[in-house]
DNA sequence: ACAGTATGAATGAACG
DNA sequence: CGTTCATTCATACTGT
């Protein structure tokens, strides 16, 4: 395997993993559970795109829990934000083919996809919690709403899904690339 | 952590597996042989990085064979591509190694590695076959060559956010946003 | 039952 | 920012 440990990367993270997880090699930042916890909290408090100063501060504070650089914090937020959106995008597409976007009621006939949707909701719920300060990353929520359409137009070609969904009568199978 | 994604619902997949691949526990997607077959076919037809639409379509079509979400398709291609690359990298390294070592002493006689190389050359050769559409994922080989750069220096910070520091003698921990 | 492997999933890092 | 790459974690699978 690859037990090259003697390199300049140093690992921390030996912080007693209870569930015996990661072996933990280094070379890349491997956040402590505490670090992740804090970052997540900040994120859920509404912070999305921390300023340089904020990054510095967060990084400094988190260094208490283990090795960390500001770029790690930067990337973390970048990724977390991006993936939240990505996830949301994917799910809403997946869920599309039977929930006509708001169904007016929890009619949700087929429960098949139900769980997936639930999951995200619970993940998103508390965004408002700590919305009490001047973040300069203000109103992320607002901004996000505004930004909400620009993203969709990526491949304008593919919008068969949004509202209708009788397309579940898929022709048994035609997977020539052209048909995708 | 972010395990909100881990539970993708439940299992289906009872579709009689010949060689007993019908694991059928859940927690993670377990593709049907049919699903794998199709995915592989697409891959060999040249598809590497399907767009969101394509992912969606594929997913929908494959759902005919069993439960599947678009993220599964996404990951599948991600992984498949990565592993192909990985494999190739290893082999070419091995081969360099092999050549430089044995070249002087011997004519290429041992052959073990040859087959491996052959194998996916033949695997790649067919890329053009179905290249009749806008796949947007073209000729991975070329792209890969271009991409061949600084993958090494993980530590060197080419990072815009590094040059800042003076303040902050960290108070043990106060991460309320206001304090950032 | 266990070691080794194949592969789904997650995520840090970075590119365009 | 959205995407893509590399690496790692976790689990299903397979052979012994």
From TrEMBL, chains A, B:
InterPro entries: HD, Homeodomain-like_sf, WUSCHEL-like. Belongs to the WUS homeobox family. Residues 24-88 bind DNA. PROSITE patterns: HOMEOBOX_2. Pfam families: Homeodomain. Its main location: nucleus. The keyword Transcription applies. CDD domains: homeodomain. It is found in: Nucleus. It comes from Hibiscus sabdariffa. This is Homeobox domain-containing protein. Residues 22-87 form the Homeobox domain. The keyword Transcription applies. Keywords: Developmental protein, DNA-binding, Homeobox, Nucleus, Transcription, Transcription regulation.
């Amino acid at each position: 395997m690859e037990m090259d440990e003697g390199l300049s990367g140093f690992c921390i993270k030996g912080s007693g993993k209870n569930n015996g997880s990661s072996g933990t090699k280094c070379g890349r930042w491997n956040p402590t559970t505490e670090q992740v916890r804090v970052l997540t909290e900040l994120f859920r408090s509404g912070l999305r795109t921390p300023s340089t100063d904020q990054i510095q501060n967060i990084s400094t504070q988190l260094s208490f829990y283990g090795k960390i650089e500001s770029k790690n914090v930067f990337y973390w937020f970048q990724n977390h934000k991006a993936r939240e959106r990505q996830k949301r995008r994917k799910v809403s597409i997946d869920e599309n083919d039977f929930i006509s976007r708001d169904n007016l009621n929890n009619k949700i006939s087929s429960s098949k996809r139900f769980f997936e949707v639930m999951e995200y909701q619970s993940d998103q719920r508390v965004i408002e919690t700590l919305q009490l300060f001047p973040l300069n990353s203000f109103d992320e929520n607002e901004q996000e709403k505004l930004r909400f359409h620009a993203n969709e137009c990526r491949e304008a070609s593919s919008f068969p899904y949004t509202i209708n969904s009788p397309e579940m009568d898929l022709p048994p199978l035609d997977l020539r690339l052209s048909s995708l």
